[in-house]
Amino acid sequence: MIIEKIKYYLKIFLINLFILYSLLYLIELTINFKKDKLFKNTRLYYLNSLQDKDPNNKIYLNYGVYKLLDKKQNILPLSGYENSKILLCLDENNQPVFYFSDKHGFNNSINKENDFLLIGDSYVQGMCVHNKDNLNAQFKKFSLKTNALAVGGNGPLLELATFKEYKDYYNYKSVILFITPSNDFLDLSKEIKNSILLNYLNNKDFTQNLSNEKNKKIKISILDSFFGNKTQRLWNDFLSVYHFNLKSLINSLENLYKNKKNQKINYEYLLNKEIDIYFIKILNEFINIIEKDKKKLYVVFNSVNPDILFPKSDDIQNLKNLLLNKKLGQIKKLLISKEISYFDFNEYILDRYNKNNISTMFKRIDDHWDHYTEKGFYEITEQIYINLLR
After folding, report:
1. What's the pTM?
2. Could you give phi then psi for residue 163, rounded to 5 degrees?
3. How many angstroms separate the Cα of 129 from the Cα of each of 144, 366, 384, 385?
4. pLDDT per residue over 341-355, tens digit each?
5. Beta strand pairing call for 341-344 and 296-301
6. Deepest of 153, 304, 312, 367, by most Cβ within 10 A of its Cβ?
7. Which residue blocks in the chain are alpha helix, DSSP H?
8. What is the pLDDT of residues 77-119, one digit of tens each?
């Protein structure tokens, strides 16, 4: 009798659970339909489907150094797989963007001679445009040869480490350092906790010798270990493509809760003076190295994202003022004192664009502002040429 009751209540519970999940799933489908994200393929889908068609040529996911900053290891890889086909990202049309990495793992076709070596993060690496539209390609339109030492997610200290580690393998006349105010200060707050990166700043002769054969093998083993079976998570990929994980619904509920609570943006790290000191120290190290090598340095300030450029709340307005006035003001003061030429793309955009037409300059991917459009990459390059280089 007791067993029969248990079976009965269990049956009722499972039926109600199924009905509840079905209702939630319908809501999930509706949300994704309205966002034009219904049954969109993922990076893993493209990676595995293309790999199946060409099993002899390995395809890799794009690597971000920041993902290994909290790992304790003797070597910190500063770039991804070398001489390989890399799946960089999915663009605004949900199509894959690939590049072929150079012999050091960067998104380049190495030139024998370069007018400029570009240092930066995902903007300089080329997110999320095809190589015919990235910064290297845009500079070619002005008859300038460039190579880029850049990885998505890099902040100032990682950029310094990458520059010191690999600069001597690229023949160049001058350096353009790109600073991204939206996230560089947050990135730096995490990078200074890594002892290997601090060695690049505190020891002028420090290097990991990542280009020698022994360390190349160690680097590849670390990358292989990091990615592990990530590229084979077909079950998770299936759940994501067909929305069985209810991800959009969960995100919508989280956003609703945040809005209801009127949660303020957390930018306490921007009030940390230690981060400012490190930032200035890193810039001085860049300046010293480049002067020692008898090169010239230019600095470009990437635009902050449109949500900050055109704030909808007092909190975001305060963030905008803090970034564009106080933080960049400190850096510009240093550059002026060192006679370093710079260009602030924020000023250009604010002078010519508004919230109604900014979508011509920035892509919107997965319902948030992403990197520059093809037009955006062209215009920043054109303005660098006009204001700094010509």
Report:
1. 0.89
2. -60, -50
3. 20, 15, 19, 21
4. 999 999 999 999 999
5. parallel
6. 304
7. 2-34, 43-53, 122-125, 135-140, 156-166, 181-191, 195-202, 213-227, 234-241, 247-261, 273-292, 306-309, 314-321, 328-337, 345-352, 374-384
8. 999 999 999 999 999 988 999 999 999 999 999 888 999 999 9
